[in-house]
Design brief:
heterodimer; A: 660 residues; Helix Hairpins; 6-stranded mixed beta sheet; B: 121 residues; Rossmann fold; 5-stranded parallel beta sheet; 5 helices; 48% helix
């Protein structure tokens, strides 16, 4: 069978199981007796084994099988979770992951896992509480039924109790096929079937023994029955995996005894049916299809806006527009919902990493995760994994101090890393916070100077905050010795680049000896947003609503001057104002606005900064579909994208983060 | 008319595998469930001619699911999909009323042979 078609699914699902395993083994470490978790781990390992075996990945199957053995012992309370087991399990998970990576990259299992398998074997053997194996010798093939089974005096009497006039006694041997899997179960089914055919007087192995007995390929039994031999033979032969049935009348003759039978019926009452639980069925969908769907919704939206632009004065038209508006809104909403996934998906990777790294570095670190159920657009989540991992690694490596050092500073020996996500307006905020050493701005500047990233003059004009942000400079890495963790070439600049490519921002807050906080702010979604349309020099521009705190009409008299910069005072806050046309480099004469009677100002907020953007006219608020400007124009200053407006024209979207 | 089958397994991968084997064998897939609880619900609704049942599953395992399904329909035909090393559990499931079992990794002809036997009886 060609298994290639299943490969992608295998990768997807096995990595989900791996994730689950990592999480749960970690839980086990803290709560070794939790049976629910043990069972979950067992099930997941079991599933991975089944999948690997089916795909024909022998190393993976072997490995997971052995890991499952350990888990099975834990489940049966033959083993108790200790650090050694946890480490073995984690190592096992890493090997599994490696093998799957191998398959992904090379199409075969390249890694050598023999050492690990031996380690597991050693462990299992060492821990075997010398359980006595009860393997019965299966003797020569020479056929002599009585050498396997013969009836004692008592057993013969028992038959006498059961036998009826028309009954006969048979010696039966059922031979199983060599390829038979789970022989015991098959044997069990054969004996069960035999019981339906008549009275099963004796068998080797017995029904009780059969579960844990190695009985070769044959099952022997003595059956008392009134059926025709051919019928019995046929019925037995019809059982799956049965190769041969040897059936002959016994030489024994037993006459019915006088009997009084009490019909005993064991009515097994199953537990009453459990509460009705409605499980909504789910489907897996290719993410590309969702992107496509989102695109289509975008197109629909554009056309709806165009339709609205027609402004036909007809009742039917108004009605249709309203309906269309409602439907497209809902459609958009649903598509968005589908694309949203909880950020927990990537957060869950980190506990394991923190555990491993803190052990490696002999630091005591607790990772606190909050807001794991905060939802974000799938495409954003996928990109976030690496930057977050980098930030957390940095926090472990550079942030949190060694226990002794922490105690000297009067802090608890155990450091804490807080990973937090929450929604704030139309933005999602993700914070990585540690209570470690903090970042020393002067250390950063010294480094930057040494690497020639900045000049002494530039540094002199920098405040502490600006100095901190130097770590985002490409080619900056503070790690003195390159450890296994951070400082492996992937610097903070990558973090910044990824976040910015997602239309987000990174901020740093740091205080010496108190800790550092990295704040990532991201838009809820990338595709469709509400925007305020404004006119600047006859052109229409869109300003994303999320960045606008308010709009004002001001009088030229309201404008003050602070250090040569025009400002307005709004509720005791001084806000600088800038001219849109100037920011956008439009070909008009700047500064004309002071001659107007009323000036339209849009107050834009980005992070902590606020700026008033002067525009010619405020138009309307509408949903816009964000389109990228394409590779050639991607770095256009103050423009983040484009959208299509009602009349089919293109409107540019202002990059408010840069303007503010 | 082709027989309707309900596939129960917590791994979508396994369900896909079984599904394709059964489809090739001329069966109709009437439903899929990823745990015992769901299996029972779907069983009630669609009354399949055959159920393929995994053993280790979250929520409700295959053995209990077999018990409950047999309670609902004493004639239900359930075939256990087991892995090596689950002897005792398969026996439990057979005791509970499952008709037969197949062992992972699945060989299509074996699976189909087992199913055909169930229907021929």
């Amino acid at each position: 069978m060609d298994n290639r078609q299943y490969l992608q699914m295998f990768f997807d699902e096995s990595s989900e199981y791996l994730q689950l395993l990592n999480e749960n083994v970690l839980l086990l470490e803290g709560d070794p007796e939790n049976e629910e978790v043990i069972n979950a781990v067992f099930r997941a390992a079991h599933s991975v084994k089944g999948m690997s075996a089916t795909m024909g990945f022998t190393k993976l199957t072997d490995l997971t099988h052995k890991v499952e053995n350990i888990l099975s012992k834990v489940r049966n309370k033959e083993l108790h979770i200790n650090e050694e087991i946890i480490n073995l399990l984690f190592a096992g998970l890493d090997h599994i992951k490696q093998l799957i990576e191998d398959i992904k990259n090379n199409g075969e299992e390249v890694s050598d896992v023999r050492d690990y398998l031996n380690q597991l074997d050693d462990f299992l053997n060492r821990d075997q509480n010398s359980g006595q194996a009860s393997v019965r010798e299966v003797t020569a093939q020479e056929y002599d039924f009585t050498s396997y089974l013969s009836l004692s005096e008592e057993e013969q009497q028992e038959i006498a109790q059961k036998i009826k006039e028309q009954d006969a006694i048979y010696n039966i041997e059922v031979v199983l096929d060599e390829s038979c899997l789970l022989k015991n179960v098959r044997g069990y089914m054969i004996l069960k079937k035999a019981q339906e055919l008549g009275y099963l007087a004796k068998s080797y192995p017995t029904l009780k023994e059969i579960e844990d007995e190695d009985f070769g390929l044959s099952i022997y039994f003595i059956l008392v029955s009134s059926m025709f031999t051919e019928d019995m033979e046929e019925i037995l032969k019809d059982i799956v995996d049965v190769k041969e049935v040897i059936l002959e009348p016994s030489e024994l003759t037993i006459f019915p005894a006088v009997k009084e039978e009490e019909a005993r019926e064991d009515k097994q009452k199953s537990p009453k049916s459990l509460a009705n639980i409605q499980v909504a069925p789910t489907v897996r969908v290719d993410i590309n299809k969702l992107d496509l769907l989102m695109n289509m919704v975008g197109e629909l939206l554009i056309n709806k806006t165009r339709l609205e632009g027609l402004k036909i004065s007809s009742e039917i038209y108004q009605d249709i527009i309203q309906q269309l508006d409602r439907v497209t809104m809902e459609l958009h909403h649903i598509v968005m919902q589908i694309r949203m996934v909880p950020i927990g998906g990537i957060f869950n990777r980190f506990p394991r990493m923190v555990r491993d790294l803190s052990k490696e570095l002999t630091k005591e670190i607790e990772l606190v995760v909050e807001g794991a159920d905060t939802e974000l657009d799938r495409s954003i989540i996928d990109e976030l994994g690496d930057p977050l991992m980098h930030l957390i690694r940095n926090a472990i490596d550079h942030g949190i101090e060694h226990p002794a050092e922490r105690e000297k500073k009067g802090k608890s020996s155990k450091g804490t890393i807080l990973l937090n996500a929450y929604q704030k307006g139309s933005e999602i905020i993700i914070e990585v916070e540690d209570d470690g050493a903090g970042i020393d701005p002067d250390f950063i500047t010294r480094k930057a100077l040494k690497k020639g990233l900045v000049t002494t003059e530039e540094v002199e004009n920098m405040d502490d905050k600006e100095k901190l942000y130097l770590i985002f400079h490409p080619g900056f890495s503070t790690s003195e010795e390159v450890t296994d963790l951070s400082g492996r070439g992937v610097g903070m600049d990558v973090v910044k680049r990824v976040v910015e490519s997602l239309d987000g921002q990174v901020f740093i807050e740091s205080e010496q000896d108190l800790g550092t906080r990295f704040i990532i702010s991201l838009p809820l979604t990338l595709a469709i947003t509400q925007a305020l349309m404004v006119k600047i020099d006859q052109e229409i521009f869109a300003i994303p609503l999320g960045a606008i705190s308010e709009t004002l009409m001001i009088n030229p008299n309201d404008i003050r001057q602070v250090r040569g910069q025009d400002v307005i005072v709004l509720r005791d806050t001084t806000i600088p104002i800038v001219e849109g046309s100037c920011k956008l480099n439009l070909n008009v004469e700047y500064g004309k606005y002071t001659e107007r009677e009323e000036i339209s100002v849009v107050i834009i907020t980005s992070g902590e900064r606020q700026v008033g953007l002067i525009v010619d006219e405020l138009l309307n608020q509408q949903e816009i579909v964000i389109k990228s400007l394409g590779n050639y124009l991607v770095n256009t200053k103050n423009i983040s994208g484009a959208t299509i407006v009602g009349d089919g024209d293109v409107a540019l979207i202002l990059d408010v983060r840069n303007i503010a | 008319m082709s027989k309707k089958v309900l596939i129960v397994d917590d791994a979508a991968f396994m369900r896909m595998m079984i599904k394709n084997i059964l489809l090739d064998g001329g069966f109709e897939i009437a439903g899929e469930a990823e745990n015992g609880r769901q299996a029972i619900e779907i069983f009630k609704k669609i009354r399949p001619d055959l159920v393929t049942m995994d053993i280790t599953m979250p929520e409700l395992d295959g053995i209990d699911a077999v018990r409950e399904i047999m309670e609902i329909d004493r004639e239900a035909k359930i075939i256990i999909c087991s892995a090596m090393g689950q002897e005792a559990m398969v026996i439990d499931a057979i005791q509970a009323g499952a008709k037969d079992f197949v062992v992972k990794p699945f060989k299509p002809d074996r699976v189909l042979a087992a199913i055909k036997k169930i229907f021929s009886n």
